[in-house]
Amino acid sequence: MDLQQTLAREVTITGPALHSAVTTTISISSAPPGSGIVFERTDLPGKPRLKAELESVLDTRRCLVIGTAQWRIATVEHLLAAFHGLGVDNAVVSIDNEELPLGDGSSFYFAQKIQEAGLVTQERPREYLRIKEPLWVEGLVGGNPNLPKAMLIALPGEDLEINYTFTSDHQVTGTQYFHYNLTKSRELFLPEIAPARTIAFREEINYLQSQGLALGGDLNCAVVVGKDQYENELRFPNEIVRHKILDILGDLYLLGPLKGQIFALRSGHALDIELAKKIKERIITTI
Ligand SMILES: [Zn+2]
Q1: Is 3-125 a CATH 3.30.230.20 domain?
Q2: What is the separation of C-alpha 258 from the centre of its chain, rounded to a whole number of angstroms?
Q3: Taking CA atoms, which of 87, 133, 234, 256 is between 20 and 30 Å from 162?
Q4: Helix (H) or strand (E) holding 201
Q5: How far is the CA of 237 from the centre of ligand 1 (A)?
Q6: Where in the chain are the domains?
Q7: Which CATH code for domain 128-286?
Q8: 203 or 49, which is more confident
Q9: For residues 13 and 101, is the Cβ–Cβ distance under 8 A?
Q10: 198-208 residue pLDDT tens
Q11: How far apart are CA 12 and CA 240, in angstroms?
Q12: Percent of the chain, pLDDT > 70?
């Protein structure tokens, strides 16, 4: 039986956000057992709070956005992945803006700080959602009907295991596959998964910046794929697929702790959320 965990002390993280390039500060503090991950906008009157769960998802197009009809917080996936990977069940994330700092485009930035703060166990068992029958979803990649479809499959399992196959005709990236068992290898999250950065294609960066987006990004906070080669040094030869696993860990943490086998092919945030909804409809909870 695993016990729930929270942070031993508060941590503060400051940095520019990706899309707005505004400098943002978050502080992460401990929270009581059973409270989950709660976000708080300290810049708004009354400091409104919202739990990170499926019902609070507003948008999945470029990043994971949660919020209400009145306010939002964008790019929460890499912080959620850090919580999931390190086993933080309960925390309050206070933020003074509407988008999280990008850090280095991975979870390492957040995960390292949380690890430094240390975790404490709480007097309540962690409850896992368990996938009890095969479930799957499929969809278009980037809304493009000319590309092969994306697919996500969830099967029952004693551990949380994520298998991802990234396929691309792009000569630089090629096809990449990776498997990660969070339950058996939680200690590998920080060195092997958390540092993997998001992918950015050179043409896409040029387009986004012409639209006033991705202003906070630079060459160091993404794996930049140029026409004939990577434009920066990789942290892992298969950094792209490792980051995809990171994104899934973040997205699925909207369900809380989970056990089961996930097989992903070309999927992104939208499909991750669709699968999470399907899992939630048909789950059993155990400790
Ligand atoms: Zn990501």
Answers
A1: yes
A2: 14
A3: 234
A4: strand 199-201
A5: 17
A6: 3-125, 128-286
A7: 3.30.1700.10
A8: 49
A9: yes
A10: 888 888 888 87
A11: 28
A12: 95
The closest of 270, 286, 277 to 255, measured between CA atoms, is 277
Find where tokens 């939630």 sit. 280
Predicted TM-score (pTM) of the model is 0.94
Run of H or E including 154: strand 150-155
Residue 269 known to be catalytic: yes
Ligand 1 centre and the CA of 192: distance in Å? Answer: 15
Residue position matching structure tokens 């048909």: 282
242-282 pLDDT per residue, tens = 999 999 999 999 999 999 999 999 999 999 999 999 999 87
Q: 55 alpha carbon to ligand 1 midpoint, in Å?
A: 20
Token pair listed for 168: 């691309």
Of 155, 182, 179, which is closest to residue 249 (Cα–Cα)? 182
User: What SS3 class is residue 246?
Assistant: helix
d(CA 70, CA 65): 13
The neighbour count for residue 127, using CB atoms within 10 Å, is 15
Shortest CA distance to 105 belongs to which of 4, 253, 234, 206? 234
> Could you write out the DSSP letters of every residue in 49-73?
EEE-SGGGEEE-SSS-EEE-SS-EE
Distance 146 CA to ligand 1 centre (A): 24
| The pair of three-digit structure tokens given for residue 87, joined into one six-digit string | 């086993």
Q: How far is the CA of 241 from the centre of ligand 1 (A)?
A: 11
SS3 at position 33:
coil
Secondary structure (3-state) at 244: helix
